[in-house]
Specification:
mainly beta; elongated; 2 helices; 5-stranded antiparallel sheet; 21 strands; 6-stranded mixed sheet
């Protein structure tokens, strides 16, 4: 089983980023684009739509869940969000390959241009942010940052790799929840009237063009065959918009047709989790199927708990033996630097081929809210100290 998860990208604190500030914008994309402005027309779109969409970005009723504080100027729309989806959405459940990160609240401010302009040529984004949903959750490119396939020229797809939950998202290396495909739960919650009849957006791309989901409920609105190569088209009034795919792989857009500056798209104030050694928590990829995710609270404490099954792994035990583990139930959790449970990469073990992991789990500061005695966890490693590794690799084997 292979796994390619969101990679760590360091950018200035006031931009979207992967670990220190939340959401990632591709390092190469930011370097290439900077503040570059293009002029021209979007890719040729099929004409003849006999309806207009409701581009309701300045209307607070257009947003849902944790998105709010909407302000409009002559040139832009700004709104704030904690980056988490609507209350009641199922988070992380269904993931088969995880990086052991948890969906945590951020402090995003998004800026969407009200006057999107076509670019001279479309931009095919590297893995990273491409827009934001109307519930304030960032939308990413479908690909992970795994290596490019020399035959197809593409990076691994997060949906195909089992890295996404039932809603189409997961938590990245910055504990930032984001979608990599059409936000399925959001679309279902918005409902047929808003999606098909009112034709309201489910999000906005980084270039300012709205993102719709026509045809999701009503096949009479299916415009899939008429979309251009970026998944865009113009309505009867000439307004360009993208439309998500309503069948697997549920793509949002294939390229950005408009001008944009990624540095102006979002700001985020957020502090990373810390481990027992004072370092930022950056989980290693793990073949772990997530059955449930919850936040347990009480007396001012909050603990994230992700329960599921470690489907495969070589685990270092306290007595220095190595066990091959398959389909073992347990929980990953985090309350504070003195109370958490996560797998880390062990030092190379004599006679053992491949990556070996161990379960680091200090428990001297666990709050009552965790209910640790009733929580099924993995056995904590208490043997000789293992060296602290640098940024983790992007596959279950640490490569």
């Amino acid at each position: 089983m292979r796994l390619w998860l969101d990679h760590v990208v360091r950018l200035p604190q006031d931009t979207m980023q992967a670990h220190r500030g939340g959401v990632v914008i591709s390092k190469s994309l930011a370097a290439v684009l900077g503040a570059v402005v293009f002029a021209g027309a979007p890719p040729a779109s099929a004409q003849g739509l006999n309806f207009t969409i409701d581009n309701c970005g300045c209307d607070s009723a257009c947003y849902s869940g944790n998105a709010g504080d909407v302000h409009c100027s002559g040139s832009s729309i700004t709104f704030r969000s904690n980056g988490l989806p609507d209350l009641g959405d199922t988070l992380m459940t269904g993931i088969k390959a995880t990086n052991q990160q948890f969906p945590r609240a951020h402090d995003f401010e998004f800026t969407i241009t009200r006057t999107p302009q076509p670019a001279a040529r479309p931009t095919y984004p590297e893995p990273g942010a491409i827009g934001v949903a109307v519930n304030g959750v960032p939308i990413f490119d479908p690909a992970s940052q795994g290596p490019v396939d020399p035959i197809t020229g593409k990076r691994p797809n997060t949906y195909e790799g089992g890295e996404l939950d039932v809603c189409g998202g997961h938590a990245g290396r910055g504990d930032d929840y984001h979608y990599h495909m059409a936000p399925k739960c959001l679309i279902e919650k918005l409902g047929e009237k808003k999606i098909e009849q009112d034709k309201q957006p489910v999000g906005f791309a980084m270039d300012g063009y709205p993102i719709l989901a026509l045809g999701w409920f009503d096949k009479a609105n299916d415009i899939e065959a008429r979309l251009d190569k970026c998944r865009g088209i113009k309505d009867a009034s000439g307004t360009y918009f993208y439309n998500v795919k309503h069948t697997p792989d549920y793509d949002v857009l294939n390229c950005l047709a408009g001008q944009f500056d990624p540095r102006r798209f979002a700001r985020d104030n957020w502090t990373a989790r810390k481990d027992a050694y004072g370092a930022d928590v950056v989980g290693i990829p793990l073949a772990f199927t997530v059955d449930s995710f919850e936040v347990r609270t009480g007396n001012g404490a909050a603990c994230e708990v992700m329960s599921g099954t470690l489907t495969d792994g070589q685990v270092l035990n306290t007595d220095q033996s190595v066990s091959r583990v398959a389909n073992r139930k347990g929980a990953l959790f985090y309350c504070n630097p003195g109370c958490y449970g996560q797998f880390l990469e062990a030092d190379a073990q004599p006679g053992v081929h491949g990556r070996v992991i161990y379960f680091e789990s200090p428990r001297d500061k666990c709050p009552a809210a965790l209910r640790l005695s009733a929580l099924k966890t993995f056995a904590a490693y208490e043997g000789p100290a293992q060296s602290r590794k640098g940024p983790p690799g992007t596959s279950p084997n640490g490569k």
